[in-house]
Every structure is written in structure tokens, then in C-alpha cells.
Design goal:
The complex is a heterotrimer of chains A (319), B (444) and C (271). Chain A folds into two domains: 154 residues, HUPs (Rossmann fold), CATH 3.40.50; 138 residues, TPP-binding domain (Rossmann fold). In chain A, 30% of the residues lie in helices and 25% in strands. Chain A has eleven helices and 15 strands. With 444 residues, chain B is of the alpha+beta class. Helices cover 34% and strands 25% of the residues of chain B. Chain B has 15 helices and 19 strands. In chain B, the strands form three sheets. In chain B, strands 3, 4, 5, 6, 11, 12, 13, 14 and 15 form a nine-stranded mixed beta sheet that branches. In chain B, strands 1, 2, 7, 8, 9, 10, 16 and 17 form an eight-stranded mixed beta sheet that branches. In chain B, strand 16 and strand 17 form a beta hairpin. In chain B, 52% of the residues are buried. Chain C has 271 residues and is of the alpha/beta class. Chain C has two domains: 193 residues, 3-Layer(aba) Sandwich (Rossmann fold); 60 residues, no CATH class. Chain C is 29% helix and 24% strand. Chain C has seven helices and eleven strands. The longest helix of chain C has 16 residues. Chain C is globular and about 65 Å long. Chain C starts with 5 loop residues before the first strand and ends in a 5-residue tail after the last helix. The chains are: A alpha/beta (319), B alpha+beta (444), C alpha/beta (271). Chains A and C meet through helix 3, helix 4, strand 5, strand 6 and strand 7 of A and helix 1, helix 3, helix 4, strand 5 and strand 6 of C. Strand 7 of chain A pairs antiparallel with strand 10 of chain C. The structure holds flavin-adenine dinucleotide (2 copies) and adenosine monophosphate (AMP). Adenosine monophosphate (AMP) binds next to helix 1, strand 2, helix 3, strand 4 and helix 4 of chain C.
């Protein structure tokens, strides 16, 4: 097994360390300032110092090195990348160049079994893989091993052919708008269980009262109910709060892997068995929309809102 | 799809007929018109026909014999109703009249349980194959009219959304916005509506078969009086293949006055010893609510105006008279007759109010208005305080005393029990006689 | 202005996630695919270009294509294939439709499979540039055959890219709201001809999987560095991925709010 980890400016991507560990610390680092990044790893690390991310060019070069019988990668049959943005974009191209199948978004990878998260992360598909394949590993699901010794580093030359790639004009650091989320000690997370954008403005009000920031799942940001920069998860912002309160969040692996390890989790959901409820210290089976409303009423006692009138309810449910 | 012309014969309009609402009424109207060779656009606000429609669960599709012969071979039916019960209950008692008919388990069948997303989708499919153009996710937002006030089309919520036609048929369901917009309703008070709420409860098919005493595709329909926590109304329990529908129909003013939430009333009903064993251990799959036009004839709007016909619940044609809760069959029939009358009017080129009179004539000649005439007093009677609160008490007490064995005392005479229990329930003899007579005239 | 630009948008019809039996009546395209369609339409408007909507799948997939036609796609192609193809195979089928198109726009991941790999496979086959997982697309560059886009990276960072044509893009759902189709267009789209092509011969593959509900994997963790013994213990016990850590209560909304506030007080988040 070989971990292939794209590196930007000496920094490992999300899930990089986990992929190295999953591959028993046999790693190819490719990108810019790879030597710096190697400091976070152990085992055997090959460095390909090739500059900014160029998935088209890199894929062909990596594939050639993987099947080079005289090369220093040792003819790995299993290539694993982190399912970080760069890893996800690179992996299919490596698989295609090698003509090997791709298992994308795996929760675990070994020669005998590959487990994938599917259906919005709510189900697992367990495959018996063929002899040679490429996979991406979902960040945050495995955890890393202790680093016991300095890595054994070797540099590798890759052969680049003709290719077409986009040019990188620059990298923007996190949006000012998300800084508060990334650094917040308390976070209220809204998911698809909240029925309308209205609930998110109410959530923001509760956030003020509880000194918490508001984040959301991808389903919500995709709907445009809140800015995409407020998406929590491995493809959004990775957060490290002490307190996380999840309103109508199913707890898909891509979301929870970006949650850090809160001291306290409260989850409000109609489904007592979904993963978010399993993770919670307090799992409340209730309609999250109504709970948001009730919390707001209690945290804003000066302005109690009228209880719903049965006629209104009838009217509302006709829609 | 048929290759019949998709465009109106008259080049000044987009289509011959716009049918608004792909419920049972709308689809049947569209089938009739498309088969008669007219171009029809069928507008539906949901993502597909039936997607948002709910009801108790039993349809009586006999009327479809005319539009879709042997519909029973293909309709998406859950179970065929072979057993009907009418139950009267108090908090701790229940009495049922139970009827079973094996003949209802074979063609041509009588009633069936079906899911509306399946049934409406299927029926609209027939409209499409007849040549109607079904357009979903599109809401009609108003009527277009010419200077004389005649309806000439609809506006919709889509960009560039005005559509013109020689005739519009409003099948947009209860509380019809279009019929009101056209001024066909005099005034509609909340007291004319009941609120229907329903829970769908999942159970394995074998469990349902065993608990309800049926097998195969046989199904049960139970109507209940006295199960609504003192709110005037009624309840029902219907069997689908692997779910049971439990619901109540509640009089709106009474509900508001009692300050009870509908789901509390269902929850209480589910704990009754006559109901609990039927639904115990089931998994709640769905909760839904919908208004029902309940007052029948007394709230029926004008059925036509120049360029517009109204059918189904939009015309308050639902029959909600106690032990009868039928709307889909009335909707299908009125839709079909509206379609036929519309075709007739279009052929003659007269879509004025008089030109459309064939519609009301058809309804008057058939069960649609005949049943309504006959049962016009039923809603008031069944939902009256006496029938709701006093009679169940009285009936249960009478039956209880008849069956109670009080040895060594001898059995009391029925006449005496009746008189005593009538008094105890606070029912005056005069009222009992009058209600009995009204019942006979209504249901007899 | 340069010559018109042909754009292909790839749309996948999926059943609503979480709904067990894939019922086509409840199916739709993902917000990401809707955003892809809107992006394609706007790019075409800026370049006098045309939009072809493409779907690989059974007849039901035409639902997505008709919606695209109603919104303004110029033509639609369905590659007839079973619905459960793997991504490499989908890309192979799509390649034939793309032909000389200058831009292919995809959603960043499909709702069910969610691998986000079809676009990269396609870029590889077409030997062209890719820019995937975009959170913003600047339409003005299209006339110069250079697109300026913003790609999402991890850690809340974003990457600015210049993409030469031809290229494959994939966009997140938040990039654009799909326009609502006009009434007449929606009616016309019901009967517009959809070009149905037999799928290219399929590579044999056997991706049979055992499907089970999601359960977190046991995590290995570095030995906890926290000086607080309680925190260390906590880190270690959490690390086992043990599923239940707290209590589950079913409550009315009002009671639920009370209960939540009580816990917040107990835990010291509220006075
Ligand atoms: C490559 C890739 C990357 C991804 N990255 C991310 C990421 O970074 N962040 C992220 O969040 N997702 C990400 N996702 C998406 C992820 O897989 C899930 O689809 C998503 O997190 C689910 O969001 P959700 O919980 O809001 O919605 P759902 O999964 O639809 O869950 C909604 C929940 O609400 C509950 N509910 C419904 N109604 C109510 C009610 N009235 N009251 C209370 N509860 C209710 C339901 O029971 C359910 O549990 C990614 C997916 C892929 C494929
Ligand atoms: C709780 C309950 C239980 C019932 N039980 C039964 C029963 O067991 N058996 C029975 O036969 N009947 C029953 N009924 C009555 C039955 O549901 C109705 O009578 C029947 O559905 C009427 O059909 P329709 O086509 O007129 O209207 P609907 O079925 O209401 O259809 C109207 C259609 O129009 C669409 N629409 C509405 N407005 C617009 C617009 N502006 N633009 C576009 N589309 C629009 C709607 O989406 C809908 O599809 C019950 C009703 C309730 C509420
Ligand atoms: N069967 C398909 N037909 C057309 N486009 C597809 C198909 N499958 C995937 N795509 C496109 O590829 C994107 C990513 O899908 P996936 O790789 O399955 O996550 C989708 O958003 C679509 O744009």
C-alpha cells in the first residue's frame, strides 16, 4: 500500500496523516515544500518536489512511478489518497491513468476489504477489492498513530509529459466570515431537519444569547440558506468547539469528521437512531424547528410569541 | 402518447382547455376532454400528481368503469375493502356493527384502500396517454378574464406564466382559490369545514392480516363515532398492505373551542381498548392534515360561470356525512361530467354560463347531486351534540345492560332500559324521535 | 467576440437520499447539478454558446433532461444505461457526448454515490484541464476562453484558478440558483425530442457491496497530551468510537427546550 499525499506549502492536507497510517507509513508526498510536511510523518517517505497542484500532470507522473519496476515506490498495488479537496481531484485521474478501479470516500482500506460511506454518509458499502486499486480515505474517521521515529526520507524524480491544467493564481486564507466559526468554543449546527431559512435567523438569535456561532451541513449550504463558508465538515470548515448543538443534523461522516471532539454534544432529531444522536451526550427526539422556536422564546422572555392556533396549523399543513 | 394535435383549434388561445389540479377530479376531466379530441393542459402545483394529496384511504372507483374499463386490473390498490364496521364508543366501551362481504373481494369490486401519491399519479398517467399535457410544479395563481368578465385562462407562478384557453376547469381542491376568485362562493365560514388528520402506522402485513381478520388483499374500513375527545367529529381506521391509517375528522369551531391539538385526539383514540390492539407496536410513518368541505349542499358554490367550470372538492362535492366519507368518487365523477359538458359546449362554440349548463344537469341526474340531496341533513345530524356526545353514552349503556348478567336479579326489559338510559344520558324523548325520523329520512 | 462555445452539462437523476426504495417520482437532480445547469446556461449566454444536457441512465433520467430543456438547454442526450454504473464507466459514456465541447459542467458530487469522481475521470479521458469543487465561477472570462474560478480547499481556504478551455468544471450547489422555467418553455420541453443513444459497450466490472447502516470506525489516537487526567481519560474513551455516550429522551418541544437549557446550566454554559 502506498499513501499519496498532495502537499501545499509544506502543510499536509486534512486526513494526510491518517492515510499514511492506513498505508503502514509508506508515503509519497507530492507538491510544494514536501520536506517540511514530512516532519509530521514517520516510516518511509518519498518526496516529489514539483510545485503547485496540477492534477492532470501529477496523475500521469504518479501512475508511471507506481508501475515502474525499477522505481523506488516498490510496485504498490494499493494507492490511497486523503479525500481532501486535492486528494479527491487527483485520485480519479491516477486511477484512470493506471486503469485501476477507484473506491472513493472510504472509511477503511485494506487489501481484503474496502468500506465506503454512501447515501449521504448514512450507509456503508463493504467491498472485497481486486488485487490493485486506488482509494480515497475520508479524513477524520481513522485517527493517526503516534509518531515514534523520524521518517526515512528519499527524494524521487517524476517524469512529466504533456498535460493541460489550470493555473493557480493564488490561495485565499479563510474568509473573515468563518474565522468566528473555526475558533468558536460553542457552535449551533443546523441541518436539513430545519425546514426553512427562517429557522437559521432564529438560530442566529439563539447564538447571540448563548455566545455561540452558527454552522450548517452541506445540504443546507447547497440550498443557499446560509453562506457556504458556514459549512462544517471535511469539505467545509473544521471546527473544535467545546459545545456542539445539532438541530436536525443526521451526522453524516463528512460532517462529524470536521467537528473535532466537543466536550458536550446535544442533538435534536426526529430519528433517535441516526449517527448524530448516537454521538450526543443529550439526544432529544423532537421536531428541531419547534425546539428552535421554544429555545428562542425562553432565551428572549420579553417577547413571547403566540402559540400556534389549530386553524393556522391546518392551513400550514395544506402547503 | 397520442399524436393528436397539441394546439387549440382556435389560434387566438394557447389551448382549448386548462384543467387546474391533477387530483382525481382534474385527471378525469382531462381524460374526458382529451379523448374527445380537445387540447388540454393539466396544471399541478406538486412535483407530481398526488405528491401532496392526503385523505383517509378508501376510494370507491365504480365510476371509473366508464373512463377506464377494468381499472381494477391496473389501479394501484393496497387492499380491497371486504369488511366495513361502524363503531360507537365511549371512553371505556365500544359497540360495532360489522359487515363482511366476500363478493367485494372479486371483480368488479366495491371499495379499495390506495395511497394518493400512487392513485393520483396513475390516474394522471391516463390523462397523459389520452393526450393531455400534464405540467407539474406549476401553480395557477389567478384567472384571466375578458372585458365581459368571462374567464379566458389562468396566470401561473412561472415566468411568462399566462396561459389562455377557451375554457378553464377548476379542480384545485378544497378552499378552491379559483372558484373564489371567480366569485362562485357566496361566503365560506369556518364552520363549513372539518379538519381531517391522519397517522399512517407501519406494521408487517401478516400482523395486520391477523389483527383485522383478513387475508391476501382483503381490507377493513372502520368508521367511529365518539372517539374524538369531546370535539364534534368522527374517526376512522383503514388497512393498507403494510400500514394502518388512523385518523379523525374534526369540526373546526369545536376544535378551536376545546383547545385540543388534533394529534392529541388521535393519540387518545389509539389508547382506546378497541383500537390499541390494532395498532400497537406499529411505527409512525407519516402524519398529515387537510381540510374537508363538510357541509355538502349547503355550501356548494355556483358550478359554472362563463368560461369556467368547478369540480370535485373545489365545488364542495365531498360527501362527509358521518359514516360516509367519500370524496374521491365524487371528484372523479364531477370531473368526468365537467369534461363531457365542456366538450359539448366547445363543440357548439358556446362556453357562456348557459352553454355550460350541461354540467349541472349531469350532476343532478346522477349520484353526484342525488346523494348530496339525499344526505343533505346528514352532516348536521351526525355532528350534532346529541349524536356526538349523548347517543354513544346511551347506546353503550343500553347494550351494556342487555348483556350484563346480574343474577340472581332477572334480566330487565329492553323498553325499561331504554327509557332509563335515555334519561340518564339527558336525551329528551322528543329529540330522540326527531333525530330518529331525520335519520330515517336521511339515510333511509 | 470569439466563436460560440459549446457547453455540456451532466445531470444525474437520483432518488431522494434516505428514501429506501428508489421511486422515480420522488427523484430529482442534486442542488449541485442544478447549480451546474445554471452555470452552463449563464456561460452560454455570455458566449452566444449552446448548452447540451447529458445524462447516463434509464428512461427516468429524461425527467432531469426535460427540466433542463425547459430552463433553456438547447438539446438533450441520454445515454441509455442501467442506473448503477461506476464513475469511470459513467465518464466513459459521457465522453462520446462531449465531443468538441469547450466546457463540461458537472455537480461536485452526486447525492447517492457522492464520490465526486465522474468529472475528474472525464477530464482525464478528454485530456483537458479540470477545476472541481468550485464555489464561484466568473462568467466574463468565457469570451477569452479563460475562466476565472474559485475552488474550495480544506481549512476554509480557497484557491483562485485560471482555467483554459477546453475544461471540466464541477460546482457546489451554492454557486448558483437554477432559474425557474417559463410556462411555455416547460410545456414545450414535454415533447422536445431527446437524443437517446445506446451506451458504448460496457466494461465488465463486479462492484457488489454489502450494505449496512453507517457506524463510526474505531479510531486510533495519539496518546492524549492533555495534562488534565479527566480530559485524558475522556479523550481515550471517546477514541474507542463507542456509540452511545449519553441519554436519549423524547420530549414535547417546550419540555425539550427546558431540558436543553437545564443541561447547559449543569455543564456550566449558562448561569
Ligand atoms: C465528497 C463529500 C463531501 C461532503 N462534505 C460535507 C461537509 O463538509 N459537511 C457536511 O455537512 N456534509 C458534507 N457532505 C454531505 C454529507 O454526506 C451529508 O449529505 C450531509 O452532511 C447531510 O446533512 P444533513 O444532516 O443536514 O441532512 P440529512 O442527512 O438529510 O439529515 C437530516 C436530518 O434531519 C432529521 N430531521 C428531519 N426532520 C426533522 C425535524 N422536523 N426535526 C428534527 N430533525 C429532523 C432527519 O431525521 C435527519 O437525521 C459531503 C458529501 C460528500 C459526498
Ligand atoms: C382526512 C381526510 C380523509 C378523507 N377520506 C376519504 C376517503 O376515505 N375516501 C374518499 O373518497 N375521500 C376521502 N376524503 C375526501 C377526498 O380526499 C377529496 O374529496 C378528494 O381528494 C377530492 O379530489 P379533488 O380532485 O377535487 O381535489 P384534491 O384531491 O384536493 O386535488 C386537488 C389538486 O389540485 C392541486 N392544486 C390545488 N391548487 C392548485 C393550483 N392553484 N394550481 C395547480 N394545482 C393546484 C393540488 O395539488 C391537488 O393535486 C378525505 C379527505 C380528508 C381530508
Ligand atoms: N449517470 C450520470 N449521468 C450524467 N452525469 C452524471 C452521472 N453520474 C454523475 N454525473 C455527474 O458527475 C457529478 C459527480 O457525480 P459523482 O461522481 O457520482 O459524485 C454529478 O453531479 C453529475 O454532474
Amino acid at each position: 500500500m502506498l499513501a499519496v499525499i498532495p502537499v501545499r506549502d509544506g502543510v499536509l492536507p486534512l486526513g494526510g496523516g491518517e492515510v499514511a497510517a492506513e498505508c503502514h507509513n509508506r508515503t509519497l508526498l507530492i507538491g510544494a515544500a514536501t520536506r517540511t510536511a514530512a516532519g509530521d510523518l514517520s516510516g518511509r517517505v518519498c518526496l516529489a518536489e514539483v510545485g503547485p497542484f496540477q492534477p492532470g500532470a501529477w496523475a500521469n507522473a504518479i501512475a508511471a512511478a507506481v508501475i515502474d519496476p525499477t522505481g523506488m515506490l516498490g510496485l504498490p498495488k494499493i494507492v490511497v489518497l486523503p479525500a481532501s479537496p486535492d486528494g479527491r481531484d487527483l485520485a480519479p485521474r491516477i486511477a484512470a491513468a493506471l486503469g485501476w478501479p477507484l473506491f472513493a470516500g472510504a472509511i477503511s482500506v485494506s487489501a481484503s476489504s474496502v468500506v465506503l460511506a454512501r447515501d449521504g454518509g448514512l450507509r456503508m458499502h463493504t467491498h472485497v477489492p481486486p488485487a490493485a486499486f486506488v482509494a480515497t480515505l475520508q479524513p477524520g474517521v481513522r485517527g493517526t498513530d503516534n509518531i515514534t521515529a523520524a521518517p526515512e526520507i528519499a527524494e524521487i524524480e517524476l517524469a512529466f509529459g504533456l498535460h493541460h491544467d489550470a493555473t493557480v493564481d493564488g490561495v485565499l486564507q479563510p474568509d473573515a466570515a468563518t474565522i468566528d466559526l473555526a475558533e468558536a468554543h460553542r457552535i449551533l449546527g443546523g441541518g436539513a431537519g430545519l425546514g426553512s431559512p427562517q429557522q437559521f435567523s432564529e438560530l442566529a438569535e439563539i447564538g447571540v444569547a448563548l455566545q455561540a456561532s452558527v454552522g450548517a451541513t452541506r445540504v443546507v449550504t447547497d440550498r443557499g440558506w446560509i453562506g457556504h463558508e458556514r459549512q462544517i465538515g471535511t469539505t467545509g470548515v473544521v471546527v473544535h468547539p467545546d459545545l456542539y448543538i445539532a438541530f436536525g443534523v443526521s451526522g453524516a461522516v463528512q460532517h462529524t469528521s470536521g467537528l473535532g471532539h466537543p466536550h458536550h454534544i446535544i442533538s435534536i432529531n426526529v430519528d433517535p437512531f441516526c449517527p448524530m444522536m448516537q454521538l450526543a451526550d443529550l439526544a432529544v427526539v423532537a421536531d428541531a424547528n419547534a425546539v428552535v422556536h421554544e429555545l428562542l422564546v425562553r432565551l428572549r422572555p420579553l417577547d413571547p410569541l403566540d402559540p400556534l392556533d389549530p386553524l393556522d396549523r391546518a392551513g400550514a399543513s395544506r402547503e | 402518447m397520442s399524436d393528436r394535435t397539441q394546439h387549440a383549434a382556435n389560434p387566438d388561445v394557447d389551448v382549448d382547455v386548462i384543467v387546474v389540479g391533477a387530483g382525481p377530479a382534474g385527471s378525469c376531466a382531462a381524460i374526458a376532454l382529451a379523448r374527445a379530441g380537445f387540447s388540454v393542459v393539466l396544471l399541478e402545483r406538486g412535483p407530481f400528481p398526488g405528491s401532496k394529496n392526503m385523505y383517509g384511504g378508501v376510494v370507491y372507483p365504480r365510476i371509473l368503469d366508464e373512463l377506464i374499463p377494468r381499472w381494477y386490473d391496473e389501479a394501484p390498490v393496497q387492499r380491497w375493502i371486504t369488511r366495513r364496521s361502524t363503531m360507537v364508543m365511549t371512553d371505556t366501551q365500544a359497540m360495532s356493527i360489522d359487515f363482511r362481504n366476500d363478493a367485494w373481494a372479486a371483480p368488479p369490486y366495491n371499495g379499495a384502500t390506495a395511497y394518493r401519491p400512487d392513485f393520483d399519479h396513475w390516474l394522471a398517467g391516463h390523462a397523459e396517454s389520452a393526450g393531455a399535457q400534464l405540467l407539474c410544479s406549476t401553480t395557477a395563481t389567478g384567472l384571466l378574464r375578458d372585458r365581459s368578465g368571462a374567464v379566458t385562462g389562468v396566470t401561473t407562478d412561472r415566468p411568462d406564466g399566462d396561459l389562455t384557453a377557451r375554457l378553464v376547469i377548476a379542480c384545485d381542491g378544497v378552499n378552491s382559490f379559483l372558484a373564489k376568485d371567480a366569485g362562485l362562493y357566496r361566503e365560506v365560514a369556518a364552520k363549513h369545514y372539518t379538519l381531517g388528520v391522519k397517522e399512517t402506522i407501519g406494521l408487517p402485513k401478516e400482523v395486520i392480516d391477523e389483527r383485522f381478520g383478513v387475508r391476501g388483499r382483503e381490507g377493513v374500513d372502520i368508521e367511529i363515532i365518539g372517539c374524538t375527545s369531546g370535539v364534534n367529529g368522527g374517526g376512522f381506521v383503514y388497512t393498507n398492505l403494510d400500514t394502518v391509517a388512523v385518523g379523525v375528522v374534526l369540526k373546526l369551531p369545536a376544535l378551536a373551542a376545546q383547545q385540543l391539538r388534533p394529534e392529541q385526539i388521535i393519540a387518545k383514540m389509539k389508547t382506546h381498548s378497541a383500537i390499541a390492539p390494532l395498532v400497537e407496536g406499529g411505527e409512525l410513518k407519516e402524519y398529515s392534515a387537510h381540510l374537508i368541505p363538510e357541509a355538502g349542499l349547503s355550501m356548494m358554490p355556483k358550478l359554472a360561470t362563463a368560461g369556467l367550470l368547478v369540480a370535485g372538492d373545489a365545488a364542495a362535492l365531498c360527501l362527509a356525512a358521518g359514516i360516509w366519507l367519500e370524496g374521491v368518487n365524487f371528484a372523479m365523477a364531477s370531473g368526468m361530467y365537467a369534461g363531457q359538458a365542456a366538450a359539448e359546449a366547445l363543440r357548439r362554440g358556446d362556453t357562456s354560463e348557459q352553454g355550460l349548463a350541461g354540467y349541472e344537469r349531469r350532476l343532478t341526474e346522477t349520484f353526484v347531486l342525488r346523494d348530496h340531496r339525499k344526505l343533505r341533513r346528514a352532516p348536521a345530524l351526525v355532528l350534532s351534540d346529541r349524536v356526538q356526545h349523548r347517543y354513544p353514552q346511551m347506546v353503550a349503556a343500553v347494550v351494556e345492560r342487555m348483556f350484563r348478567v346480574d343474577n340472581p336479579d332477572p334480566k330487565p326489559g329492553l323498553r325499561r332500559i331504554l327509557a332509563q338510559e335515555r334519561k340518564r344520558a339527558g336525551v329528551r324523548r322528543r329529540d330522540l324521535a326527531r333525530d330518529g325520523w331525520a335519520g330515517l329520512r336521511t339515510f333511509g | 467576440m470569439n466563436s460560440p462555445i459549446d457547453i455540456v452539462v451532466c445531470l444525474k437523476l437520483t432518488a431522494r437520499p434516505g428514501v429506501a426504495d428508489a421511486d422515480e417520482r420522488f427523484a430529482g437532480v442534486s442542488p449541485a447539478d442544478q447549480a451546474a445547469l445554471e452555470t452552463a446556461l449563464v456561460l452560454a449566454e455570455h458566449s452566444r454558446g449552446s448548452v447540451t444536457a447529458a445524462a447516463v441512465g434509464p428512461v427516468a433520467a429524461e425527467l432531469a433532461l426535460r427540466e433542463a430543456l425547459a430552463c433553456g438547454a438547447h438539446r438533450a442526450v441520454r445515454l441509455d444505461a442501467p442506473s448503477a454504473l461506476d464513475s469511470a464507466e459513467v465518464a466513459r459514456q459521457l465522453e462520446g457526448v462531449v465531443g468538441d465541447a469547450a466546457i463540461v459542467v458537472c455537480g461536485d458530487y452526486s447525492l447517492d454515490r457522492g464520490s465526486g469522481s465522474v468529472p475528474a475521470f472525464l477530464a482525464h479521458r478528454l485530456r483537458c484541464a479540470q477545476a472541481l469543487g468550485l464555489v464561484s465561477v466568473d462568467h466574463t472570462g468565457v469570451v477569452d476562453r479563460m475562466l476565472h474560478v474559485v475552488r474550495r480547499l480544506d481549512g476554509g481556504r480557497r484557491e483562485l484558478l485560471t482555467v483554459p478551455l477546453p475544461c471540466v468544471l464541477s460546482v457546489e450547489g451554492s454557486v448558483a440558483r437554477l432559474r425557474r422555467a417559463g410556462l411555455r418553455d416547460a410545456l414545450a420541453a414535454r415533447t422536445t425530442n431527446i437524443d437517446v443513444r445506446p451506451s458504448a459497450p460496457m466494461a465488465a466490472h463486479a462492484a457488489t457491496a454489502v450494505v449496512t447502516p453507517y457506524r463510526p470506525r474505531a479510531r486510533t489516537m495519539m496518546s492524549p497530551g492533555d495534562p488534565d487526567p479527566l480530559a485524558r481519560l475522556r479523550a481515550l474513551t471517546d477514541a474507542t468510537g463507542s456509540s452511545t455516550r449519553g441519554e436519549t429522551v423524547a420530549l414535547e418541544p417546550g419540555e425539550a427546550a427546558e431540558r436543553i437549557l437545564r443541561s447547559l446550566r449543569e455543564w456550566g454554559y449558562l448561569d
